[in-house]
Design a protein that fits this description.
The structure holds 2 protein chains of 2 kinds. By secondary structure, chain A is of the alpha/beta class. Chain A has 9 helices and 8 strands. In chain A, about 40% of the residues lie in helices and about 20% in strands. In chain A, strands 1-2-3-6-5-4 form a 6-stranded mixed beta sheet. Chain A has a two-stranded parallel sheet with strand order 7-8. In chain A, a hairpin with a 4-residue loop joins β5 and β6. The radius of gyration of chain A is 24 Å and the shape is elongated. Chain B is of the alpha+beta class. Chain B folds into 2 domains: about 50 residues, no CATH class; about 300 residues, Cytochrome-c3 Hydrogenase, chain B (Orthogonal Bundle). Chain B is about 50% helix and about 15% strand. Chain B has 16 helices and 8 strands. In chain B, α3 packs antiparallel against α4, α4 runs antiparallel to α5 and α6 runs antiparallel to α7. The longest helix of chain B has 30 residues. The relative contact order of chain B is 0.18. Classes of the chains: A alpha/beta, B alpha+beta. At the A-B interface, α1, α2, β4 and α8 of A face α2, β6, β7 and β8 of B.
Chain lengths: ~250, ~375
């Protein structure tokens, strides 16, 4: 797929801008040296812009890149995660040290990556001390090529602070996460869905069973190794009396 | 006696036959039941007419929307979101487009935002009208159904004229809207506003002070603000419990900050308050539509978006105030043309979870009222 699209894209105007976004974005990330880095970017820009216009000399190539510039700084305002420092993160970091692996913002959205061993304590603390009283969502993402295959994500919102954050942890296949049901009741169904779709177990959940798929179903469909046309043929045969649900 | 507080109690009871010697009965409701608004199965544990506990069995309409997303490009997945909450498809599309726009770091131009606001608010009215008609029908009032469906038809006509579809509209595109407003769009919308405002009084005349309606809804399906927040309940259900929270005000998107409207709230958190809140919301939506259509700016309707949408690597969560509550999209991009993961945070799914809390101790007939008042759409619950 990707191979097919790339050659088509390259001659079109949007594409040359794209690779140039990355250096500019990096320049934004390092705030103090922005000026110096920005000075570098036109060069990078020229390099990126040269291939589609082979006829233009180097100096001329740098010029057409310049008008494109004003648009560029506005665009990469977020594409790299920025460090997120606040009273809350410093308290948490002081308390948990290296268990808080990362606190960042991405396109203005705050998130923290924490160690799975302390995630339940942190969630409890966020609710009790930091007023994150509403668990918006709990979900997971599967990365089969990583050693820690699953991201488990909690999206929290605070009514008093009108603030939204995400807490993320990474776990290995077969590892369990502590259930958040004692903290927020709403976690009950959300965790059941994560279990259903990814097979992640939540310790301390009152009734961890499948929610959307039938109880006897084999496999967890939102894992990346589960094919889009895959089905539990045995279940389909027994319960529906047909060869295939496709 | 069976311990009904334990989840899955009905299975134990069935296996051991313990419920036979008590005065308790397990009653199955659905999945094919007219008042469950789709394919919802509720297992009720009863003592006479009193509900001791419930268990919802869902997933009959599960189509694996999130899995489909991973196998389609960003653009190709857009129409699929309409099939979740199919009575408010415009809201679904808006949420999805906003999420991908956030990933791409583009913003829809003002004119597109205004068109989006007009259509989304019209859709909110349509969704609430459908809710009101069916909810009243569940409770035994038949007339409102004909009134609301008659008026909802006018909204669907506008949708049809605008984009050719009535229900699954696919009205918006990533970066704006595909279609310019048709000639006479403004007049049609204004005409509709004029037409429907007195109709809303009609709905209220039929129900607000109707003694039967009051008896069936007052004090039924109570949920306190604390419980509602702990259960993650959003939308009119949360507001009826007295929490003044609306994402359009709390974290405005699509230029909602430009419009003047109130967030109606209830006091008691019962079925009657939820009815009042939704009817008031329809009027507020009408206010927004009127303001938007009067001040719709000129300009482009699409932002500059590459033909092949390839957002940079990253993840975002974007949510909007859908008619049912907070509808969120958590999208993970790996830099390719297809989303790595799309998680939909469906308001109906989360709100339905509160059903058990709301009907414990109530009567069987109230279960029907409470399912109705939660305003669930099973297409969204199961996705």
């Amino acid at each position: 797929m990707a191979d097919e699209t790339t050659p088509k894209d390259q001659p079109t105007p949007p594409q040359p801008e794209k690779p140039a976004e990355t250096p500019a974005a990096k320049a934004d990330a390092a705030a103090p040296t922005t000026e110096a880095k920005l000075a570098e970017t036109p060069a990078a820009k020229a390099d990126a812009a040269t291939p589609p216009k082979p006829a233009a000399p180097a100096a001329a190539a740098a010029k057409p890149a310049a008008p494109a510039k004003p648009a560029a700084p506005a665009k990469p305002a977020g594409p790299t995660p920025q460090p997120w420092e606040s009273e809350m993160t410093t308290t948490l970091k002081r308390q948990y040290g290296s268990a808080i692996k990362e606190t960042s913002t991405y396109v203005g959205q705050k998130y923290m990556v924490v160690d799975p061993t302390v995630v339940d304590e942190i969630l409890q603390l966020l609710r009790d001390d930091e007023q994150f009283d509403y668990l918006v969502d709990c979900t997971a993402v599967h990365y089969p090529n990583r050693e820690q295959q699953f991201d488990v994500v909690w999206i929290l919102y605070s009514f008093p602070r009108n603030e939204r954050i995400r807490v993320k942890t990474m776990i290995k296949e077969g590892d369990a996460v502590t259930s958040a049901t004692p903290i927020w009741e709403t976690a009950n169904w959300l965790e059941r869905e994560v279990f259903d779709m990814f097979g992640i177990k939540f310790e301390g959940h009152p009734d961890l069973k499948r929610i959307l798929l039938p109880d006897g179903w084999k496999g967890h469909p939102l894992r990346k190794d589960y094919g889009i046309l895959q089905q539990d043929t045995e279940w389909v045969k027994i319960n529906l009396g047909i060869e295939s649900g496709q | 006696m069976t311990d009904t507080s334990k989840p899955g109690f009905y299975e134990d009871a069935g296996a051991t036959g313990t419920f036979l010697d008590a005065n308790e009965m397990v009653l199955n409701m659905g999945p094919q039941h007219p008042s469950t608004h789709g394919v919802l199965r509720v297992i009720l544990k009863l003592d006479g007419e009193k509900v001791l506990g419930t268990e919802c069995i869902i997933g009959y309409l599960h189509r694996g929307v999130e899995k489909i997303a991973e196998n389609r490009t960003y653009t190709m997945f857009n129409p699929y979101v309409d099939r979740m909450d199919y009575v408010a498809s415009v809201s679904n599309g808006l949420g999805y487009c906003l999420a991908i726009e956030k990933l791409l770091n583009v913003e829809a131009p003002p004119r597109a935002c205004y068109i989006r606001v007009i259509l989304t608010e019209l859709n909110r009215i349509a969704s609430h009208q459908l809710w009101l008609g069916t909810h009243a029908l569940d409770i035994g009032a038949m007339t409102p159904l004909f009134y609301t469906f008659r008026d909802r038809e006018e909204i669907l006509k506008i949708f049809e004229k605008y984009c050719g579809a009535r229900l699954t509209t696919h009205a918006f595109r990533i970066g704006g809207t595909q279609y310019e407003t048709y000639e006479g769009f403004e007049q049609d919308v204004k005409k509709f506003c004029k037409f429907v405002a007195p109709k809303m009084d009609e709905y209220e005349e039929l129900l607000t002070t109707n003694r039967i309606w009051l008896q069936r809804t007052k004090g039924v399906g109570l949920i306190s603000a604390e419980d509602a927040i702990a259960m993650g309940v959003t939308g009119p259900v949360l507001r009826a419990s007295g929490v003044k929270w609306d994402l359009r005000k709390a974290q405005p998107y699509s230029l909602y900050e430009k419009f003047d409207f109130e967030v109606p709230i209830g006091i008691n958190g019962d079925t009657y308050d939820r009815y009042l809140v939704r009817v008031a919301e329809m009027r507020q939506s009408l206010r927004i539509v009127e303001q938007a259509v009067d001040s719709i700016p000129e300009g482009p309707i699409m932002a500059k978006v590459p033909k092949v949408i390839k957002p940079p690597v990253g993840e975002v969560y974007v949510s909007i105030e859908a008619p049912k509550g907070e509808l969120g999209y958590f999208v993970v991009s790996d830099g390719s043309t297809q989303p790595y993961r799309v998680r939909v945070r469906p308001p109906s799914f989360v709100n339905l979870q509160a059903l058990d809390k709301m009907v414990r101790g109530a009567l069987v007939a109230d279960v029907v009222a409470v399912i109705g008042t939660l305003d669930i759409v099973l297409g969204e619950v199961d996705r």
